[in-house]
Design brief:
Mean pLDDT: 93
Order of helices and strands: HEEEEEEEEEEEEEEEEEEEEEEEE
Number of strands: 24
Strand content: over 45%
Strand order of the largest sheet: 1-24-23-22
Number of helices: 1
Low-confidence stretches: 1-18
Length: about 280
């Protein structure tokens, strides 16, 4: 019995150590984190928490892989930049109703696509070496974007009952893209849904959970999903392959948004708290 209690205490201690967080402050409402090789990029909406304001005070910060700031305003004069991803040396960023591309080395703009009718472009996933999937939380559309020919089309439109598509994740094993729902009006709770990349059939993966934002994969293949929660007490859910849902023991997070996994660490932008939280990938 004593041995069991000691083992249980040790497990709890190790779990606590695993989820110990390191905070990086000094950001301006960080919405998304994306890393490649030795650098990490953070999109900052700006001084005010106004994700749809065209005020030119948004920017992209460049960090090293340890979280130290290399250049705070590596890319300037954006409105409210959010999700990021890359193909080759081009960093793609969504900025309200535009999809922009920048050279990752010098920050020079190399692409600017104005998406007609877009309201709230949010997340980016790479489908192949010239194609992006981009979510629009405001219209419910996931766009398919050809960055070579600078063209786009509707890939699928998500029913509003699931929440507007926010975070995206390509599930190559099952040939699908997974998205999490967020209602910008705050009236409905968003769900996790999967869309078959070939048939575009939509499958529900969870009940309505909350104001869902980011999605990444845990070490063992579980899904990790951020939720702004009630009264800005955000949480990170863990969903296993059976659909069981638990919460990571991180305490309340102010606005956990578009998370990033580098395979070893989980980077969580706490948008309201103006910081980035880095933990060992669960």
């Amino acid at each position: 019995m004593k041995k069991s209690l000691i083992s249980a205490a040790l497990c709890l201690s190790l779990a606590s150590m695993t989820l110990s967080a390191k905070d990086f402050t000094g950001f301006s409402h960080p919405e998304s984190v994306y890393g490649k090789k030795e650098v990490v990029f953070v999109s900052n909406v700006g001084e005010k928490l106004e994700p749809l304001a065209k005020d030119k005070d948004g920017f992209i910060s460049k960090l090293d892989k340890e979280g130290n700031v290399i250049v705070k305003d590596f890319i300037k004069n954006l409105d409210a930049p959010k999700g990021m991803n890359s193909i080759g040396d081009t960093l793609y960023v969504v900025d309200i109703d535009k999809i922009k591309g920048f050279n990752m080395n010098d920050g020079q703009e190399v692409l600017n696509i104005d998406v007609k009718g877009a309201i709230f472009l949010n997340a980016i996933e790479v489908l192949d070496n010239k194609t992006l999937l981009v979510s629009d939380t405001g219209t419910g559309i996931i766009h398919k974007v050809d960055v070579v020919n600078k063209k786009y089309e509707t890939f699928v439109k998500i029913d509003s009952k699931f929440g507007g598509p926010n975070g995206l994740l390509i599930d190559q094993k099952n040939n699908r893209v997974i998205t999490v729902g967020y209602d910008p009006m705050g009236k409905e709770k968003g769900s996790i849904v999967a869309i078959d990349l070939k048939t575009k059939k939509i499958s529900l993966l969870s009940k309505p959970l909350g104001a869902l934002d980011g999605i990444v994969v845990a070490k063992n293949g579980d899904l990790l999903v951020s939720d702004w929660g009630e009264n800005l007490k955000g949480v990170i859910y863990r969903i296993d392959f059976k659909g069981n849902i638990t919460k990571l023991d991180l305490g309340a997070i102010g606005g956990p948004a578009d998370m990033f996994s580098d395979g070893k660490n989980l980077w969580i932008p706490a948008m309201v708290d103006n910081k980035i939280i880095k933990i060992d990938l669960p």
